[in-house]
Write a structure and sequence with these properties.
The chain is mostly helical. The protein contains eight helices and four strands; from the N terminus they run αααααββαααββ. Strand 1 and strand 2 form a beta hairpin. The mean pLDDT is 93.
């Protein structure tokens, strides 16, 4: 494995369940500080497609059980990618959208899913305060 998947996706189940703007902001900041450096090979590569393929293969290998990734793990991995990996690449890299397009394609093909991505501000603005499940405004 060329990527430290255990470090990148440490606490993936916890981090994929974000409930407020404040929580999302704190988790994103921590991801950038502690984990984004693990993706340097991917974002700085001349052959982004090959690195994306290697990254997805490493993630699959780390999380597979009996030849496939369990549904709950897959859901958490997808949320983690959408909440942290894609928005950070978009905000930190000059050619972030090209990297994210390639990574999304390879991820969807490798994990047989259909995720997309957006930027940090769009996600951040989407969080709402709820009381008993009823939205009462933005947090």
């Amino acid at each position: 494995m060329s990527y430290n998947v255990n470090k990148i996706f440490e606490d993936v189940a916890y981090l994929s369940k974000v409930h407020s703007k404040k929580e999302y902001e704190a988790h994103t900041s921590k991801f950038k500080d502690d984990r984004y450096g693990e993706l340097t090979t991917l974002v700085k590569s001349d052959d982004v497609a090959a690195e994306c393929n290697q990254f997805c293969e490493d993630v699959f290998t780390s999380f597979k059980k009996f030849g496939k990734v369990r549904g709950t793990d897959q859901m958490n991995l997808n949320y983690f990618m959408i909440y942290y990996v894609f928005p950070t690449i978009l905000s930190e890299e000059e050619n972030g959208s090209e990297i994210c397009d390639t990574l999304k394609e390879v991820w969807n093909q490798h994990f047989k899913c259909n995720i997309s991505y957006t930027d940090y501000n769009t996600l951040y603005e989407g969080f709402q305060t709820k009381i008993f499940g009823i939205p009462i405004g933005k947090n």
